[in-house]
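Example (one chain per record):
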Amino acid sequence: MFRINLGVLAVLVAVSAGSLAACTTTKDGTASPSPTGSAATNPSSVDPAVPKVAVPLDASKYVSDTCAVVSKDVLTSLRYTDPGRYQARGDTLFTKAGPSCLWKLQGEGIGLSVSLGTGSRDEGAGGLAGIYRGYADKTYIRFLEPAPAVDGYPAVYWGPLDERPMGSCGIGVGIADDLTFDVYAQGYQGADDSCGVAKQVASSVIKTLKGA
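Predicted structure:
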């Protein structure tokens, strides 16, 4: 049975950084949209230490075909031979941040997902700045740690908690100052294994976006 942590996956694949900008606050029992002033939409107002993207990449080709953003050779090397399950951006918890693709190893409790933060970008809170802002707010993101760059593109480990010791790893990679993609590897053996898979897949995404 495929045992994926829906709480973490909901954040990494669907909520992501973008919907954090649209988080609601509660007043008198009624949910209200958070303010959307310049502090919510201007990445530079968040933290000057947020890494910038020197050479942005265009991911628009893969918005409607996110499963194709990871090469078949890499997926096969990781034993993912079944087609991925594509989800378009929508209004649900699992689709709000942008389109995604989910793969699983049947009967092993191991899974992999890739999502594009185009929904986050469209809401004015995309990119690594959105993740850093979400961490500062502690609304959903309570764990953030800089990660080694992926093929020259800045990256962070992040999520509602640090699950790397349990074999699950989420990494966000900035491909523009207002756009990231996220990789989440779940059900592996410890931090090295899960993050190794996540970084390998992230590298494949970069190469695909570069047209390599």
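Caption: The domain at 6-22+55-210 is CATH 3.40.1000 (Protein Transport Mog1p; Chain A).
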